[in-house]
Amino acid sequence: MIKVMFFAHLREQIGTGEIEINSFKGTVKELKEYLQINHSLNNLDSIMTAVNEEFCHDETMVDEGDIIALIPPVSGG
Amino acid sequence: MIFEIIKEPISIESVVSKVVQREAGAITTFIGTVRELTNGKRTLYLEYEAYISMAVKKLEQIGQEISERWPGTKTAITHRIGRLGITDIAVVIATSTPHRAESYEANRYAIERIKEIVPIWKKEHWEDGEKWIGDQLGTKEYLEGKPGEEDLDD
């Protein structure tokens, strides 16, 4: 099982801050495609990703137990 | 906690006190406040949201980067989240250094880095709508959904 977290407009779009997905195997890029298809999210191209609280690339493999966060362009400060 | 995300109003004094050191000849404090007008549009209030655990880590990373670039610098950062009204303080950054020039430089560096790598978002609420704001700098392109190498490795 993996946990996927959503923030800002993505959280509002999907209606929850996090979901769990059973037996996902693949890369971050594939996870994004999965989310677009199964959770009707729009284009995720401008969305960064963090695995276990560190920024990662689209090619990063997602492992069992990972916490993945979709990170829209930040606007703190 | 030297790097914090909090929901209550920020005490400027408490952030500044965290960087007091005998070696310092200067403390620079940046206070980020909520502005009413942006490009002629009137903001009623802002809502800040954060991925708190990661945001704290990234603030710590910024502190680390500053220590490497300007040795001897002490940095403290507190960012507030939740609903903030016009003129409320959203972020306080304090940097102390032996001499004043580095103090300003290090402090400026901290706020620019916050706008690049710290997972905090703001939503502007206007009379006629609302919007999550992203990529304020307008300088970043995440074409493959990732930050640049410099963001990943340092």
Automatic annotation (TrEMBL), chain A:
Keyword Nucleotide-binding: yes
Protein species of origin: Heyndrickxia sporothermodurans
GO cellular component: molybdopterin adenylyltransferase complex
Source species taxonomy: Bacteria, Bacillati, Bacillota, Bacilli, Bacillales
Keywords: Nucleotide-binding
Name of the molecule in the record: Molybdopterin synthase sulfur carrier subunit
Family affiliation: Belongs to the MoaD family.
GO molecular function list: nucleotide binding
Alphabetized InterPro entries for the sequence: Beta-grasp_dom_sf, MOCS2A, Mopterin_synth/thiamin_S_b, ThiS/MoaD-like
GO annotation terms (biological process): Mo-molybdopterin cofactor biosynthetic process
CDD domains, per the entry: Ubl_MoaD
UniProtKB/TrEMBL annotation, chain B:
GO-annotated molecular function: molybdopterin synthase activity
Species name: Heyndrickxia sporothermodurans
Family as reported in the entry's similarity comment: Belongs to the MoaE family.
Taxonomy, superkingdom: Bacteria
Protein name listed in UniProt: Molybdopterin synthase catalytic subunit
Keywords: Molybdenum cofactor biosynthesis, Transferase
Gene Ontology biological process: Mo-molybdopterin cofactor biosynthetic process
Lineage: Bacteria, Bacillati, Bacillota, Bacilli, Bacillales
Claim: Phosphoprotein is one of the keywords in the record: no
Function in brief: Converts molybdopterin precursor Z into molybdopterin. This requires the incorporation of two sulfur atoms into precursor Z to generate a dithiolene group. The sulfur is provided by MoaD.
EC number, as in UniProt: 2.8.1.12
